[in-house]
Amino acid sequence: MSSKIVIGVGIAGYPVAAAGNTWAFLQWALGFRSLGWEVILVESIDSTKCVDSQWQSVPFEQSANKSHWEKTIRDYGFEEKSFLLIDGESKDKSDLFDSARGAELFLNISGHFKNREVLDLCRHRIYLDLDPAFTQIWSEVYGEAMNFEFHDLFFTVGPLYEKGNVRAPQAGRKWLGTLPLVHLPSWPMQPLSGDRFTTMTHWYGYPPVEYQGEWYGNKSEEFTKIIELPQQTKASIEIASDLGEESDLQKEFLSKGWKMTVASEANHDLLSYQRYIQSSRGEFSVAKNGYVKSNCGWFSDRSVCYLASGKPVILQETGWSELIPSGKGALSFKGLEEAQRAIQQVILEPEIHSLAARALAEEYFNSDRVIQEMIRKVEKSL
After folding, report:
1. Whole-model pTM?
2. What is the 3-state secondary structure (H, E, C) of the chain?
3. Which residues are within 8 A (CB) of 324 and not within 5 positions of it... i.e. 6 or more apart?
């Protein structure tokens, strides 16, 4: 199967200091295009949510939404194959219909795109969930409309969902697993450099959710569990977050030896995001509490960018080590002591872990491989 695909993205909808979010969508488009697919990007946003760079409401024509969308599609060569609907309308809507008609697949990332007219033009519609456990809990427990309707197949980056033994609901769907991907030509191997392990995070994200009497939370509580880590290692560990300098919690982490910086600077645009990752010693990060608790196998789409750049990743266990080897290049941990040991291993053998990181990206997260495996599952399921 290699033909035409329409990909529903969320680029214009997240226009300010959200480069990591844009990369998460863009890598899928670049990956399919590299495999010879004709790729069409579509997005639909509400004009009432358009903002300028200071988050002030403005008309679409003066918005950061418009400028971020146009720069992204121009820089990555999608000008002739991208369509942005404002309040469901576009001057190019007839061109969109002509372009989408007969497409083999519609890949709806996070279910953002809801225009039934366009979805119906494609032979098969795939829902790709980027927030495993939370997506399903929101749907099944809270009754949130997650736009599952009108899709033929459901994939999630919680790959252990496919085995059916995660501690989270299925929301009435059969979920197929996929790993996150990285477009390797966009993320070349980098030389050994950097004096800090880094990561980026929304500290609180969104409110925790409840399932069967347990609460599924965000990264905040997982970071708090290991707040003593810098005092137990000689490593410098930096978190780029949205806490703010006046936050009492940020001051507490600083007092424990953590380095803290502003996420909006590192996440300002696609290149600053890339520079931040590639100038790091490696990544150290916890996972959302909900990913840990559900044991869904989630692995970060940011972490695969570190790996591709030759930057080792130390990432909290979510079940991911059942699918991806842990120990060289990517190291899992469950608590403070395991985190400390993993950091020490990387410090002692930096070159070995750097080469292993790139090798893992090539073998497991290479967009060619991940997409081909997805297509194999699609062909088997339809």
Report:
1. 0.97
2. CCCEEEEECCCCCCCCCCHHHHHHHHHHHHHHHHCCCEEEEEEEECHHHCECCCCCECCHHHCHHHHHHHHHHHHCCCHHHEEEEECCECCCHHHHHHHHCCCCEEEEECCCCCCHHHHCCCCEEEEEECCCCHHHHHHHCCCCCCCCCCCCEEEECCHHHHHCCCCCCCCCCCEEECCCCECHHHCCCCCCCCCEEEEECCCCCCCCEEECCEEECCHHHHHHHCCCHHHHCCCEEEEEECCCCCCHHHHHHHHCCCEEEEHHHHCCCHHHHHHHHHCCCEEEECCCHHHHHHCCCCCCCCHHHHHHCCCCEEEECCCHHHCCCCCCCEEEECCHHHHHHHHHHHHHCHHHHHHHHHHHHHHHHEHHHHHHHHHHHHHHHC
3. 179, 299, 330, 360, 364
Closest CA to 208 of 118, 300, 289, 90: 289
Q: Which domains does the chain have, with CATH numbers?
A: 4-181+367-381 (3.40.50), 184-364 (3.40.50.2000)
Does residue 2 surpass a pLDDT of 80?
Answer: no
pLDDT at res. 382: 87
Kindly tell me if the per-residue pLDDT of 104 is higher than 80. yes
Residue-wise pLDDT tens digits, 210-233? 999 999 999 999 999 999 999 999
Nearest residue to 236 (alpha-carbon basis) of 182, 273, 171, 281: 281
**In the sheet where 282-285 sits, what is the strand order?**
259-262, 236-241, 196-200, 282-285, 313-316, 330-333
**137-171, pLDDT tens digit by residue?**
999 999 999 999 999 999 999 999 999 889 999 99
